[in-house]
Design goal:
The structure holds two protein chains of two kinds. Chain A is mainly α. Chain A has two domains: 62 residues; 77 residues, no CATH class. Chain A is 65% helix and 0% strand. Chain A is built from six helices and no strands. By secondary structure, chain B is mainly alpha-helical. Chain B is 71% helix and 1% strand. Chain B has 19 helices and two strands. Chain B has a two-stranded antiparallel ribbon with strand order 1-2. In chain B, a hairpin with a 6-residue loop joins strand 1 and strand 2. In chain B, helix 4 packs antiparallel against helix 13 and helix 11 runs antiparallel to helix 12. The longest helix of chain B is centred in the N-terminal third of the chain and has 34 residues. Classes of the chains: A mainly alpha, B mainly alpha.
Chain lengths: 159, 499
């Protein structure tokens, strides 16, 4: 088998088309959005209309995505391990839980991620899920005077 | 001369010196931890500097940059895993030497060549940056537009990815830079009703996302990788015979690294590869390369550290980042209200020279820290990922939030992390995205100003000699490798038949 020419069939070949296709769809959406931008009268436009530059960039990306779809022969990457999907899921879960309390979300994410990645020692889980978030909270709150969003836990400190 | 001295005086504050020492330790730690690198380290540390004055804040970021670039050699030599991508070529000879029980000798050579490379490049920086700034003082918008375009075109050549994919990623970064109110017309673009987006997408959350959180996902896919550390008694300075053998490689790579660093967007990784290859090409014993050659370590390490100084030349003098980490430092400068460019050496000369002196100091500090602390830092290379990455995540999120104190920035960081990971998985480097985001605003503003200046006759830009020069360089950066590739592809069979 000629190893210089990757497999042209099956899911691997499909991924080579899917990525440029996704880029093209995103370009189409972005281009549509640029058509909704306000236009300014010629006397105020200062060289170019607000939509001109983004449209130019979008067209460049679309043209290069087409080139990739037709010419790119890079082999598709191997399948993702389950831990990546789970970690991505945890990231999305973190984003939702952060609405309740940022530091509860940070602690929960750290413990869950560490455990899923194989950590079983209680002290290590306590370190990443409790000690570090609490230390970071007080470091930023007291030293850098950053006010975190109010939540179930942070309200205990802010009153 | 006054600026040189006033910069030195500004740095001669015990508190600041202590801060730089601590940052050097932190930078070495960041560089020694596999998965973390100078760019990620600087992006994560940036939010910690927001309440500081500009000189200590930027000095800390620069310190992390220099120290982490050096420290990548520690893991490269001891566990055959480059702490930073710039040390990948150091693995080739460092690890075989360590396997032969000469880890201390390899680290000694890495420390010496890194320091020499760093010092050479900073001397060049001190001389070249003000000259370049003076040359750029009379640039008009068309010249700046052409220069920025050239900086972006250099993205095609970075890393080992496809040039087309690099340009797509860079253009995506430029597109992200158009989010918010258009500065020329005050029209809102891509804000989706979020007031926080009116001022555009923040650099810091995107940097934290694409460099920090995307790396977390990369680590999630590499959990089965086992690392074994080679123990080492003590670091050993090179002998006189070692110096005799390597001094040419060190000096040559220092020059190469400085030059590569000055080129927009090219950083320490490209410099180390070219430095290593040139060291092998000019060596009297090329057969030793890959089996434990000291010249290989010297060539790689002198080049990657000298690229740090070189990269700061266009960053400070023109506002065009010379490397991925310099792009994050550029974002840091903007966050602190400092506008890099020609006026930096007239209006903020004390600041500029204080930063130069800080870089020089860091290079001397990490030499001694490397000599006396390498054994200690070697231990941190085996911190379990199950502890390291949850901690990195906590700092990433709090850092993303801290700058604007906005939860939207947290979600932008998470989104940028997932997008960054998917980009990396499908062969798109995230570095062009970051640089495109930083340069995008400048590119559009300069284009608009040029159009006003030239009465909307854009083709007149090609009649301006300096702008034309940069357009030619842009064309060479984009199409040069393609043409070269074709020329050499045609010639290769001729050479192989011995004609």
């Amino acid at each position: 088998m000629d190893i210089s020419r990757p497999d042209q069939t099956g899911p691997r070949a499909a991924s080579r088309v899917i990525v440029p296709l996704v880029i093209l769809v995103l370009c189409a959406i972005a281009y549509y959005l640029t058509t909704t931008f306000d236009r300014v009268p010629p006397i105020l436009k200062r060289g170019i209309q607000p939509s001109d530059f983004p449209q130019l960039v979008i067209l460049l990306i679309a043209a290069l995505a087409l080139w990739l779809a037709l010419r790119d022969r890079e082999p598709a990457p191997p399948p993702l391990p389950a831990t990546v999907y789970i970690t991505m899921g945890l990231l999305i879960g973190f984003s939702v839980l952060a609405l309740v309390d940022l530091f509860i979300a940070l602690g929960a994410f750290a413990v869950a991620m560490s455990a899923i990645w194989g950590e079983r020692r209680a002290w290590a889980l306590a370190l990443v899920g409790l000690v570090v978030p609490v230390a970071v909270f007080f470091l930023f709150d007291i030293v850098f005077e950053i006010r975190f969003p109010r939540g179930v836990l942070t309200n205990l400190w802010y009153g | 001369m006054d600026a040189l001295l006033s910069g030195l005086v500004a740095l001669a504050d015990p508190e600041l010196l202590l801060l730089i020492f601590a940052a050097t330790l932190g930078g070495v730690l960041v560089g020694a931890l596999p998965g973390l690198n100078a760019t990620t380290g600087v992006a994560l540390l940036l939010p910690f500097t927001i309440t500081m004055e500009p000189i200590p804040a930027i000095a800390i970021l620069i310190t992390i940059y220099c120290a982490a670039t050096f420290a990548g050699a520690i893991t490269a030599i001891l566990i055959n895993t480059p702490g930073t991508s710039a040390s990948a070529t150091t693995c080739l000879d460092g690890y075989p030497l360590a396997q032969r029980g000469e880890a201390g000798r390899a680290l000694g050579m890495a420390a010496v060549s890194s320091t020499i490379g760093g010092v050479v490049s900073i001397v060049c920086l001190m001389a070249a940056a003000p000259l370049l700034a003076r040359a750029a003082y009379n640039f008009a918008p068309p010249e700046y537009f052409a220069l920025t375009l050239f900086g972006l075109s250099m993205l095609a050549t970075i890393g080992d990815g496809s040039p087309v994919k690099n340009i797509v990623a860079g253009a995506f970064g430029v597109l992200l830079a158009t989010v918010g109110i258009d500065l020329l017309t005050t029209v809102e673009r891509f804000t989706f009703g979020f007031n926080e987006l009116s001022e555009g997408i923040g650099f810091v959350p995107v940097m934290i996302g694409v460099f920090g959180i995307s790396e977390l996902l990369v680590q999630a896919s590499n959990l089965n990788v086992k690392r074994e550390r080679i123990t080492m008694k003590a670091i050993r300075l090179p002998s006189r015979a070692d110096y005799r053998k390597t001094w040419k490689a060190i000096l040559r790579s220092s020059g190469i690294g400085t030059f590569i660093g000055i080129l927009p967007a090219e950083g320490a990784t490209v410099a180390s590869m070219i430095g290593y290859n040139e060291a092998r090409r000019w060596s009297k014993t090329p057969e030793e390369f890959g089996k434990g050659s000291l010249e290989g370590i010297a060539g790689s390490e002198a080049a990657n550290n000298s690229a740090t100084g070189g990269a700061m030349v266009p960053t400070l003098a023109l506002g065009i980042p010379g490397s991925p980490t310099a792009a994050v430092i550029l974002a840091g400068l903007m966050v602190h209200g400092i506008r890099p460019g020609p006026t930096m050496f007239t209006e903020q000369s004390t600041f500029a020279f204080a930063i130069f002196w800080a870089m020089l100091l860091v290079n001397l500090m990490f030499f001694f820290i490397g000599l006396f602390g390498a054994r200690l830092f070697a231990r941190v290379t085996l911190v379990p990922v199950t502890i390291l990455w949850p901690v990195v995540f906590t700092f990433s999120i709090v850092g993303a939030y801290a700058l604007e104190q906005s939860m939207l920035d947290v979600w932008i960081a998470i989104g940028a992390g997932i997008i960054g990971y998917l980009m990396r998985r499908y062969g798109f480097s995230v570095v062009p995205l970051a640089i495109g985001l930083i340069l995008g605003g400048m590119l559009e503003t300069r284009l608009g100003q040029s159009m006003v200046m030239l009465d909307e006759r854009w083709w007149l830009m090609f009649t301006r000699p300096l702008a034309l020069f940069f357009f030619v360089l842009t064309a060479l950066a984009l199409f040069g490798p393609l043409i070269w590739g074709r020329v050499f592809a045609q010639r290769a069979p001729v050479q192989s038949t011995g004609e």
